[in-house]
């Protein structure tokens, strides 16, 4: 017996005897569950003693109780049977509700057994395929300050290695922020001209990851190709996609899991990202940003010591750096490695290193630099404790995140300068601290007090986006539940910092590659985007947030051009943030000219709304699309196009702005004059221009 939910936008079909989702069809006719006989309901991981990988497969259970509503269907399994453990007193309830094309899936678990429910896969698309056999499929997600696309069809990118899984597998892999919520709250299953949005339906810090498997494996492993047949070696070919919850539900506990939403959309990834942004904007409030950080401006990042003891610059000499910044038109200096032991050593201490002059000398240097009109933002890091500290075991180990075996999680640390450390012989290992431990939060506040007492204009919390390698903490002496998500207090920490700070609207809270929901705490996000194929997914979903990118080259015109295109603040970082502004005169000069153009066109490229490539087209003379270009819309409705030429050779392009049929005018970074054009534009090598309607 089949059950159908259909509202004209989306049709979902279910097998009433198993609860399996057997069809998921868009208004355009794409059935994302290509083979109904491979439909799935849910999966649980319920470890047994001596048999950890013990799975409960939803379609292997007795028929569920079914409750049908006008727009919903609920399936209830009062008990389950696992693959190796037999029957268990674990109840599962799934509710699917369809409203205006949005299928919301709510799953709850009532565990009255003696076992722990570690994983819950729900919902599950048992046989995902693109609309046609000739089509493509890729997963688009947030990545480190940007976006990523993982191919799924006709090529499948394996992201977890070969040795630990039976088949090619993807877990939503963000460079540092991780595999799922809150860092990656949705995924887009993008095909040709349409896609399927899958995302959380409430802002929760409970851990949900995105899990995809190619069964039974590659046709051609050299090319990572998907078998384009119904079966291979007698096994059905399918992609199984699911949201996997990591709840650790103990015996005699019940839990309602984070609800998920599935919704089709027409178009490319922009349209799917729009669904996320509209949902988020319904509940989200961004953090305040100091007035100075809202303006177009430039930073300089400088490290003055590493764990290998370079001791590059005494605090008393920092005023020279401030003078160079003022001369270069730089607004803020991010100072790194001022703390005891240098960058990534003696964590979580932020006390100024006595070898560089100590607290009073740094405080005086900051004041001297501020007198020049330059801000000073101090590098900060609270995630870890340095395992090489003499007091690690006595002071910090009790507050470390613990794994299920009672051991701490250890991050490999960072290697600096000497061959000894670059070979990882004497690297300072970093141990993840638990933000759910009130005693550790109190220590973080004490460290923050030091930074404020130094007179800084803000902090940049490095690696605020993750708690690697941990996802959950199992040390209940910290005052939290078993298996609590380690990201749960990310926003609470900064809320307490703000409360401690008091009335300081000029103080900036910045962070590294903040995940989207962290913009509720941070006014600026810093990341690195040196990729000619940069995918600005995060910029697109958060067009008015302050984001900053690193510029490290000695004639780094293209990174400056990229910053113009994507509305990024520039952070000048010669010698990988160990050099001075005087080391890169060509880059400093080109940045000045870009900032002049940004100011001249700020109503579009700074104060306007970024829409990536939506609203215009830029083509070669033969009509082929070019890359990169971006579109901005001013408050008065007028449009500007930023276009760059990353190659060293001149390039002629044609710019067409949607809704504009008249002549255009443009200005390049290299020229302070606006010029007229009918749409054709010649760009010199490694240059960029802003084009607006006349």
The class by helix and strand makeup works out as alpha+beta
Count every helix, treating DSSP H or I runs of 4 or more residues as helices.
13
Oligomer: single chain
| Global outline | globular
Beta-strand percent range: 25-35%
**Biggest beta sheet attributes:** 10 strands, antiparallel
Mean pLDDT: 96
Q: Could you tell me the radius of gyration in angstroms?
A: 27 Å
Low-confidence runs of at least 5 consecutive residues:
173-178
Helix content: 10-25%
Q: How many strand units?
A: 45
Distance between the termini: 64 Å
Please explain how this structure is put together.
This protein has 694 residues and is α+β, with helices and mostly antiparallel strands. It is 17% helix and 33% strand. The chain has 13 helices and 45 strands. Strands 6, 7, 10, 11, 13, 14, 16, 17, 22 and 23 form a 10-stranded antiparallel sheet that branches. The chain has an 8-stranded parallel β-barrel with strand order 24-25-26-30-33-34-35-36, surrounded by 4 helices. Helix 7 crosses helix 8. The chain is globular, with a radius of gyration of 27 Å. About 1% of the residues have low confidence.
């Amino acid at each position: 017996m089949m059950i159908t939910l259909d509202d004209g936008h989306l049709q979902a079909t279910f097998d009433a005897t198993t609860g399996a989702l057997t069809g998921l069809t868009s208004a355009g006719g794409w059935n994302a569950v290509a083979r109904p006989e491979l439909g799935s309901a849910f999966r649980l991981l319920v470890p047994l003693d001596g048999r950890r990988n013990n799975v409960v497969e939803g379609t292997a259970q007795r028929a569920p109780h079914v409750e049908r509503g006008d727009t919903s269907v609920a399936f209830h399994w009062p008990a389950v049977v696992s693959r190796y453990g037999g029957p268990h007193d674990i109840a599962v309830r799934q509710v699917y509700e369809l409203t205006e094309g949005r299928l919301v899936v709510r799953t709850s678990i009532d565990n009255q057994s003696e076992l722990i429910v570690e994983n819950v896969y729900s919902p599950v698309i048992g046989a995902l395929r693109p609309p046609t056999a000739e089509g493509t499929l890729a997963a688009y997600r947030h990545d480190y300050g940007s976006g990523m696309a993982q191919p799924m069809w006709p090529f499948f990118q394996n992201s977890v290695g070969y040795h630990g899984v039976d088949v090619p597998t993807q877990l939503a892999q963000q460079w540092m922020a991780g595999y799922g919520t809150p860092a990656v709250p949705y995924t887009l299953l993008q095909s040709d001209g349409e896609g399927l949005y899958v995302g959380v339906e409430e802002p929760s810090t409970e851990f949900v990851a995105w899990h995809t498997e190619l069964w039974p494996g590659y046709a051609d492993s050299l090319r990572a190709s998907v078998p384009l047949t119904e079966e291979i070696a007698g096994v059905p070919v399918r992609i199984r996609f699911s949201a996997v919850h990591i709840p650790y539900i103990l015996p005699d506990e019940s839990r309602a899991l984070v609800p998920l939403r599935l919704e089709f959309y027409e178009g490319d990834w922009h349209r799917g990202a729009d669904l996320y942004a509209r949902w988020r904007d319904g509940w989200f409030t961004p953090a305040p940003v100091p007035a100075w950080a809202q303006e177009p401006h430039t930073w300089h990042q400088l490290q003055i010591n590493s764990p290998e003891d370079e001791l590059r610059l005494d605090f008393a000499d920092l005023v020279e750096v401030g003078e160079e910044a003022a001369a270069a038109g730089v607004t803020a200096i991010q100072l790194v490695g001022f703390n005891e032991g240098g960058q990534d050593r003696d964590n979580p201490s932020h006390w100024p290193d006595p070898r560089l002059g100590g607290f009073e000398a740094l405080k005086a240097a900051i004041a001297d630099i501020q007198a020049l009109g330059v801000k000073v933002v101090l590098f900060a890091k609270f995630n870890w404790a340095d395992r090489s500290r003499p007091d690690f075991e006595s002071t910090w180990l009790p507050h470390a995140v613990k794994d299920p075996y009672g051991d701490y999680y250890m991050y490999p640390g960072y290697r600096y300068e000497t061959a000894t450390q670059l070979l990882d012989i004497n690297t300072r290992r970093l141990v993840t601290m638990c933000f759910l431990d009130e005693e550790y939060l109190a220590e973080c506040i004490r460290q923050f007090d030091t930074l404020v007492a130094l007179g800084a204009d803000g902090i940049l919390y490095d690696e605020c986006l993750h708690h690697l390698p941990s996802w959950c903490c199992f040390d209940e002496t910290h005052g939290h539940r078993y298996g609590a998500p380690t990201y749960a207090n990310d926003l609470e920490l900064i809320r307490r910092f703000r409360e401690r700070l008091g009335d300081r609207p000029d103080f900036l809270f910045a962070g590294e590659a903040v995940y989207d929901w962290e913009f509720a705490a941070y006014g600026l996000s810093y990341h690195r985007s040196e990729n000619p194929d940069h995918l600005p997914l995060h910029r697109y979903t958060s067009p008015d947030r302050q984001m900053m990118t690193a510029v490290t080259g000695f004639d780094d015109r293209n990174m400056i051009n990229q910053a113009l295109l994507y509305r990024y603040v520039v952070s000048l970082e010669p010698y990988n943030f160990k050099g001075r502004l005087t080391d890169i005169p060509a880059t400093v000069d080109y940045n000045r000219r870009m900032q002049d153009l940004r100011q001249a066109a700020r109503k579009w490229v700074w104060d306007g709304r970024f829409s990536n490539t939506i609203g215009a087209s830029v083509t070669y003379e033969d009509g082929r699309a070019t890359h990169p270009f971006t579109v901005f819309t001013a408050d008065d409705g007028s449009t500007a196009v930023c276009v760059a030429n990353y190659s060293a050779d001149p390039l002629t392009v044609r710019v067409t702005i949607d809704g504009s049929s008249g002549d255009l005018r443009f200005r390049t970074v290299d020229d302070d004059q606006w010029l007229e054009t009918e749409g054709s534009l010649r760009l010199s090598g490694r240059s960029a221009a802003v084009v607006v309607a006349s």
